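Predicting holo structure, zinc ion bound.
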Amino acid sequence: MNHDTTPIAAIATPPGRGGIGVVRISGKNLAPVMEAVCGTSALQPRHATYLPFRHADGSAIDQGLAIYFKAPHSYTGEDVLELHGHGGPVVMQMLLARCLEAGRDIDLRLAEPGEFTQRAFLNDKLDLAQAEAVADLIEASTEAAAKSASASLTGAFSRAIHGLVEKVIHLRMLVEATLDFPEEEIDFLEKSDARGQLERIRADLEQVFAEASQGALLREGLNVVLAGQPNVGKSSLLNALAGAEIAIVTPIAGTTRDKVSETIQIEGIPLNIVDTAGIREAGDEVERIGIERTWGEVFRADVIVHLLDAGRGPTRADEDITQRFPPNVPVLRVWNKIDLSGHKPAVDRAAEATHIYLSATERAGIDLLRAELLRVAGWQQTAESRFIARERHLVALKAAREHLAFAAEHAMAGGQTSDQALDLFAEELRIAQERLSSITGEFTPDDLLGVIFSRFCIGK
Ligand code: GDP
Ligand code: ZN
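Done. Tokens:
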């Protein structure tokens, strides 16, 4: 990514009306804009000055606070000017337009989404994992996700990665030194405890991976599909699951008939639960389309909850549905209406699927289902200092894990270490290090950076 240092401007507060709105400008030589809009270019850094923001003809656009941050002591690491005015869409647009006009001579332009944070990254104010945490914090849909994003933002995840990288570097240095002095090579691996070091690194990585997986779960949540015949109680179960949580995040009414999805949280994990319209033979065209969409949801599911009537047992139609479930998605078979059938609330982990007995309307056994959903998702309640993580991070950690395993194989090759085995050992360590470092943004390809920052909102 060529490091573009053209000054940029954007409205940093969300569109709509609010108490205040902020226009943010970042770049070099912001004095002309300050002079023109604020009437002074001598704002004291990090001090809020109350003043009118002016049009070119001297009339006031708004009155508010101007705050100047001198490089490198700013969010982006560049000079930053923040104008805090009243948060109305029209007044904010006028203020932004005025800044762009006043900044014509310094080539001031509109910022791309995430460009402020991208500059913070390029100027080493944040590493990549921290920059991603900024977006994750803004997008967090549960308190737990926000908490872990905040932990990542302050560097919890980055420190864990750095810890691993440093240990890998230390081991690499040992190996490289040995390769440089072949006479000392005789059983280098024994003397330096290289195998022991490697095993400890691998154990540490497992720990980080486990925590990152939890963090990714907090961020991505879980897609749960409620499938089953009409009248088995899907809508009732959705209500029961949602009702058990006070914090319903976003209820979204679906577009197809009787399809409703609701995001609830269980222990801070967002669960997007889709109540599919009863899957059955299509009666008419509209219904056929609805049913096709339903199957689309089923294929995107992380977990399928197949609801059945405990009093009736599975029907032919249920068998047909089961046949069509995607093979790799875990299925929970939930037997509903146990108040009518006389079963007790229970979980039965059978070979082909887990069976849960409950009553949606009596709210009996709902906790069992909630716990089972978390279990299927791989959630562990134990880990305390959770940080947020993304699929990208998990992929990098898995690759590092794999190359450390290769390294271990080379280290196991005989008691005497051949030159070649040592070479391969060193090479695997190097690759593992590179993959780990991609998490914090060293050795990260430009196009990937582009993708990451383009998903930010404007003004961030
Ligand atoms: P859906 O078509 O699968 O969404 O099923 P609904 O949730 O609309 O429920 C169909 C009927 O079954 C309604 O009359 C519900 O009150 C009833 N029902 C749902 N769950 C239970 C239950 O646990 N016990 C009893 N007795 N009735 C239930
Ligand atoms: Zn329903």
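DSSP finds 16 helices and 14 strands in the chain.
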